[in-house]
Structures are given as structure tokens and as C-alpha cells.
């Protein structure tokens, strides 16, 4: 499964880890120096939620920002009761 949000189009982005060595000048040192740069990926914050898609209730993986913006239509709450509880 691809790590892509169907609503916002967010997908993994490229970045790097920067390794530094030394004491910062602000802390009384002679400054930090970069010793290595390694590639990495930043993944979107995908959450699995129940949503109404094309009139049907489905589980979809969407970005947390899409949930906050209100782009996800949540299904209505069930008010189903057990048959013996309804007759009593």
C-alpha cells in the first residue's frame, strides 16, 4: 500500500540527517562541523479512519491534516439495540 493520502495528495518527501561534531560557539566551543549527511524520508502522518466514500462506509488511510480540516466525512453513529432489550 502506497503511503499517499487520497484527499490531500501528501506523500513521502526526501530529506537528510546531518551529523555534527563539536561544541557550539554559543556554548563556549570553537563551533560545530558537519561530519556526515545521510539520506532519509519524511512520511506523512497517515491515520486509518472510517469514512463515507461514494455512499459506502470504508476504512481509508488519510493524513491527520485532512481529518483536522474536515475533509473526511464520518459515517453516522449506529443506534442499534439488542432485540431482547427493546421488548423489555
Automatic annotation (TrEMBL):
- What is the source species? Limisphaera ngatamarikiensis
Record-linked HAMAP family: Ribosomal_bL28
Which SUPFAM superfamilies does the record match to this protein? L28p-like
Coiled-coil annotation: which residues? none
A GO BP entry is: translation
Q: Which domain of life is it from?
A: Bacteria
Which GO MF terms are attached to this record? Answer: structural constituent of ribosome
Task: Please name the InterPro entries in this protein's record.
Answer: Bacterial_rp_bL28, Ribosomal_bL28, Ribosomal_bL28/bL31-like_sf, Ribosomal_bL28_bact-type, Ribosomal_bL28_sf
- The protein's name: Large ribosomal subunit protein bL28
Identify the taxonomic lineage of the organism of origin.
Bacteria, Pseudomonadati, Verrucomicrobiota, Verrucomicrobiia, Limisphaerales
- Which Pfam families does the entry mention? Ribosomal_L28
Amino acid at each position: 500500500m502506497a503511503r499517499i493520502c487520497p484527499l490531500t495528495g501528501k506523500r513521502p518527501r526526501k530529506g537528510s540527517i546531518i551529523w555534527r561534531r563539536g561544541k557550539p560557539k554559543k556554548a563556549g566551543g570553537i563551533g560545530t562541523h558537519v561530519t556526515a549527511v545521510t539520506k532519509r524520508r519524511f512520511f506523512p502522518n497517515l491515520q486509518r479512519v472510517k469514512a463515507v466514500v461514494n455512499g459506502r462506509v470504508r476504512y481509508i488511510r488519510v493524513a491527520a491534516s485532512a481529518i483536522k480540516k474536515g475533509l473526511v466525512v464520518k459515517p453516522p453513529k449506529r443506534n442499534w439495540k439488542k432485540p431482547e432489550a427493546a421488548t423489555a
